[in-house]
Fold Exostosin GT47 domain-containing protein.
Amino acid sequence: MQHSIDYWLWADLIAPESQRLLKNVIRVEQQEEADIFYVPFFTTISYFLLEKQECKALYREALKWVTDQPAWQRSEGRDHVIPVHHPWSFKSVRRFVKKAIWLLPDMDSTGNWYKPGQVYLEKDVILPYVPNVDLCDYKCVSETQSKRSTLLFFRGRLKRNAGGKIRSKLVTELQSIEDIIIEEGSAGAKGKVAAQTGMRKSLFCLNPAGDTPSSARLFDAIVSGCIPVIISDELELPFEGILDYSKIALFVSSTDAVQPGWLVKYLRGIDAQRVREMQSNLLKYSRHFLYSSPAQPLGPEDLTWRMIAGKLVNIKLHIQRSRRVVRESRSVCTCECRVGNTTRML
């Protein structure tokens, strides 16, 4: 399941210490000893498995239990981590936990999925989807290198809402070009095989916005050795404080992408040396997006803990500040440090 990040993180935390490979996160027995509190609640799986009203009732029950804890009340949840990796996860009670660290697939700034002020990079962490296809490792890349005859590949829903409306425009622009494949996707085993085969035969993989700015397709492309061409103006990326995506992906503005002939000319103009360098980097970067048990050093679980650790000083600042402010003080620091997302072509 592409949103099952809560399962993989919890699997790492509950594994016996003798079997864990990650040593930068240590479970403690007493609340007073903890720097961060991970909330082990499967918000996304609950949404998919339960009826709507049953799910909402479970969300309310989980909310009450968490917010009744002394640790939550000491910090108002600022040092708590909650997996919210689907746009609908925990949605009915999110407003009560907005100070917590949310683990998200993206930060849609259009307001379609998150209310203004609920999510921002300084507080939350973007996590990759779980890839739907198998890893194309060094042996696989070597075997497929000469077979990548498709310039650009896309398999998925051709019509989406919100920012995904660009998909239908791209279909009109690209579908009749000989060495470009644009096709409607399908779920299940056959759909996986078709997507995996197509990506392994292609130099570039198209990653347009859908109903949300992100999709699992980006990470499918990365582990397939297919250079992502990202056309999603509102996209935020996982672990960008650690990883440099300019080494493995191309970023194109939606305005440029739909100009007649522009995208094809741009891709054909990328020299072979740069393509080889990016393909080589994809091999090195794949490890950062492969969830596993036991969790691996520099895998997504490890990078998640590292990103959270980097927020600790700021978390403690706000916790301690909230304890000493008097009635006349500003309840919230109004310093504006959030930078709007912009897309540039690399």
Remarks:
- The beta strands are 37-38, 80-83, 101-104, 125-126, 150-156, 180-184, 202-208, 227-231, 250-251.
- The chain has a mean pLDDT of 89.
- The first helix runs from residue 5 to 14.
